[in-house]
Amino acid sequence: MMRGCTDALVKHLGAAFARIWILNKEEQVLELQVSSGIYTHTNGIHSRVAMGRLKIGLIAAERKPHLTNSVQDDPRVNDKEWAKREGMVAFGGYPLIVEGEIIGVIALFSRQPLTESTFTALGIAANEIAIGIKRKQTEVSLQESEERFRNLVEASSDWVWEVDENVVYTYVSPKVREILGYEPQEVLGKTPFELMAPEEAERVRKIFAPIAALRQSFKCLENTNLHQDGHLVVLETNGVPIFDVEGKFCGYRGIDRDITVRKQEAAKLWETQQQLQAILDNFPGLLYLLDTENKYLLVNRHYENIFNLNQDQVLGQSLYDIWPDDVAETFVVNNFEVIAGGIPREFEEVAPHPDGLHTYLSIKFPLKDVNGITYAVCGISTDITDRKRALEELHQSEEYLRLLVEGVKDYAIYMLDPEGRVMSWNSGAECITGYQASEIIGDDFCCFFRQEEIFNNIPKQQLEIAAANGRCECESVFVRKDGSHFWANCILTPLHDETGKLRGFSKVTRDITERKLAEKSLLRLQKAIESTSDAISITDIAGKAIYVNPAFIEVFDYTGIQLNAHGGLSANFRNQELFNSVLKTVQRGQSWRGEVTMKTRSREDVQIDLRTDAIKDATGDIVAVISICTDITQRKLIEEGLRLRDRAIAASSNGIIIADVTSPDSSIIYVNPAFERMTGYSVAEVLGQHFPLAQGVDINQSALEELRTAMETGKDCTVILRNHGKCGSIFWNELSISPVYDVYGCLTHYIGIQNDITERKQAETALLISEQRLKYLLTASPAVIYTSKATEDFGAIFISDNIKGMVSYEAREFIEDSSFWYTHIHPEDAPAVLAKLSQVLEKKQYSLEYRFLHQDGTYRWVYDQGKVVWDEAGNPLELVGYWADITSRKQLEQELRVALEKEKELNELKSRFISMTSHEFRTPLSTILSSSELLEHYRYRWTQEKQLTHLRRIQTAVHRMTEMLDDILVSGKAEAGKLEYRPLLLDLVKYCRQLVEEVRVNLRNKHLISFSSEYESIFCYMDDKLLGHILCNLLSNAIKYSANDSLVKFTLACECELAVFEIQDQGIGIPEEDLPHLFESFHRARNVGNILGTGLGLAIVKKCVDIYQGEITVTSKIGIGTKFTVKIPLKKYPT
């Protein structure tokens, strides 16, 4: 493309030659890319032109075109002789700039002058060429980026995928073939759930649904998929949402990692832990773990059982908390030796038991962290009390023999017969093996071997080797009498007589357990050196390598042989003079330490913290040199990052202060330029000032006390302070301080960050004044002011605090829960309230009355009035209104209605009573009047029988009036609650029979009354007068409203300690609509016609039954009859 452009310039603009340079941004050098015309080469002096050098570099640096038609006189042309020789007249150069970025230069030389139009054409061509070059560079970068991404995806051990908004795969990397056995095209078009079992798919859907609904990223979502061959694969899925340029959700992009092996290893680890716990719990010895402060971290079950302690009593306690001081002190001393030495130790320790002191053989060893620091001591103790006692007895019984073999007490020397049976035994053997002579002589010497060796016939093989070779020597583990093991060196020698016949063997055994332990300790030390991350080398005094650890090989890429081949340790030093200085220092017997730059075998620089020291022999002579190299390259990079952060702090727009709290007055040691701009004080004026009282802070501020308290307690704190600038002006700043601690946890500095919030404070002051005015208006008014949403659920946006005085709810409860207001309206009122509010946008205002649930559980009447608030465009913003408690008014209205109803009812009762009494009393009075007048005028003419007839009529009328008056009096007492209940012991059956007889005597008609009861007698306590009112009224009504010759049935029964009275007639019956009012005073059924009655009888019956705490029921059919059932409790004792 660029070649075509320069060719066109030569052809169409008449240039002698044209060239294009492209800027190498990293080196800031213009590199010649193409040349057309008389010169086509791209090498030479102009192939690489630095920015600002020569005319090409100046065009690029100045970003300005350059035109001259007098090249031979142009000061920017260095070789004017060349210009004259080649006849060059004109030069034109243009910077190639795209979007403000310089990317190169285009230039041409011509043998004829360049016109303005030619130069303009060159400028247009430069602009188009720059755009083309930039586009090409972008395409190349994009292609390289896509290639890197494709390589990364294909090389990744993770499966990369994309799904659309319906969770359907739209891209799948080839890794799916290795993880799930599917080809990518087999997965495309499916959802992840189709690759799972149904139960797992449902579980993952429930987890993913809320994430997808919120378009959130997710991490570490574990899910189990089905491999194509049927086995299960556990994946760990991470994904992020994808949005297009318009912000529309397009799906998710993420990766799946196969964690099947990790999950299996975790399960195996758990099983191993369980096995180790089982071993620990069943270990027969005492096992315990203590930290470096001698506090218990662990004891095994045997330890708990032996000392009658449990984990809760022991863990966290020190040795002094559990044991007597003298015993604990011994344990502590032994533990300190283990910690200080860093190697296992064996001790005999004494611990108290209920039966006395017991001796334990304790093997204690240190537990170290990854840095080789001991953090705990583990102990295994075996009770050797019995063995100690046996050894003491053996020592006493064979003291003489021990003295004889004092010189060989470290050796077990004994004789064997040809079959391997012990024939003699010395004290050294007793000490080493624990067997006394009387216990071992005559026994086979195989008892000292382990069971597997006995099984493999090792004892017999050793006898055969010794007999054949004249000697058998070995180092192995043997078994003592108590079952413990020990290392020993054994020499077995055959014994022959003069004839050469084998008479037996002599065996010399030396205990080498301590030597083996030492070898083991040295091996651990070697492993520690080999496992450390520090590079360690040991050289001779000339610097030749004797030993290097694996870390040295990793850091410097040298083995010991390779290092010596390159001249020894000096090959690592970038500065040989420094190496010589270090070596001379160590040769003088002194240590050397410092930070140096060293080099690897590939000559890469490594930053090293070097410690070098001499290794001396027992005489103090230097025999070797040890060097420990810590790679601090990363630390140096971090330090550079910190320096970069310091520069960022200096450039921050926030004022930053650092104060040294270790100084007496917490003086300021650093402020950034933003602080200077904010306060007007320079760094020199501020440094050393007391923090936080620098720069004229008004000291009479409560925030300062809060700040001092935070600094004294080492806490974070943010306060707002009123401050004075250097010029005297007042400004407000928000100061946040944070403590800084050193590695030991000690407070050393405070960092303060302050922002100028003067404008915000001024706005807050104006807002506060407005709020105070509004608050006064809200608290002074008894009404509650509110604003709410104009649509949907009409939830509260704001409500004044005096709402609590009205309904005892906090204002925030209305605001935090949008449905709070509506859900507390009385269910009967809520639909009407919502319906009316739904029309508020049309009617623009509203007024409501409804009941609202108070916090005490009662409902209060509320008057709610408000209107719609509109914006300038006529859109509804909110509803604004007020509440007023009208409960008192509603109660007065209700009381007024009740009073009116009662007055109406009393008037009705009064009218009915007057009507009844006038009607009921008129008939008997008329009878009395007429009969008395007839007797007065005609008694002399009438017979005795006729006079008696009229006298009986007068008596009957008087009796009728007396009954009516009695009913009225009893009803009045019942209404006033003055009926007395006086129970007496009576026979209920006998009482009913007598009552029936009295009713029959008073009857002058032909009614029949049938009384029946299955009981001969029922004794109980009842009030006979109340019972009489009940039964007499019921019987009287049954007779009154029945035809002559009809039967009235009266039965008495008992049911669940209740007396059940049933009175059934064959009368006119009671209409169904009269049944609800049957027991109301003065109420009479509408079908009674001219039958006399007051309407009080059944009301009296109901009152008496209620006094008895009984119940009365009635069933009736028109024209067939009525049955009353009364149930009264049977009381066996007076109450």
| Lateral strand order in the biggest sheet | 3-2-1-6-5-4
How far is the first residue's CA from the last residue's CA? 123 Å
CATH superfamily caption of the largest domain: Histidine kinase-like ATPase, C-terminal domain
- Low-pLDDT parts are none
Q: Quickly name the level 1 CATH class of the largest domain.
A: Alpha Beta
Assign a percent range to the helix content: 40-55%
Helix segment count? 37
What fold name stands as the CATH topology of the largest domain?
Answer: Heat Shock Protein 90
Question: What would you note in describing this structure?
Answer:
The protein is α+β, with helices and mostly antiparallel strands and 1135 residues long. It contains 37 helices and 42 strands. The chain has eight domains: 145 residues, GAF domain (Beta-Lactamase, 2-Layer Sandwich); 109 residues, PAS domain (Beta-Lactamase), CATH 3.30.450; 101 residues, PAS domain (Beta-Lactamase, 2-Layer Sandwich); 115 residues, 2-Layer Sandwich (Beta-Lactamase), CATH 3.30.450.20; 103 residues, Beta-Lactamase (2-Layer Sandwich); 111 residues, Beta-Lactamase; 105 residues, 2-Layer Sandwich (Beta-Lactamase); 151 residues, 2-Layer Sandwich (Heat Shock Protein 90). The protein is 40% helix and 29% strand. The protein has a six-stranded antiparallel beta sheet, sandwiched between helices. A five-stranded antiparallel beta sheet has the order 8-7-11-10-9, sandwiched between helices. Strands 13-12-16-15-14 form a five-stranded antiparallel beta sheet, with helices on both faces. The termini are far apart. This is histidine kinase.
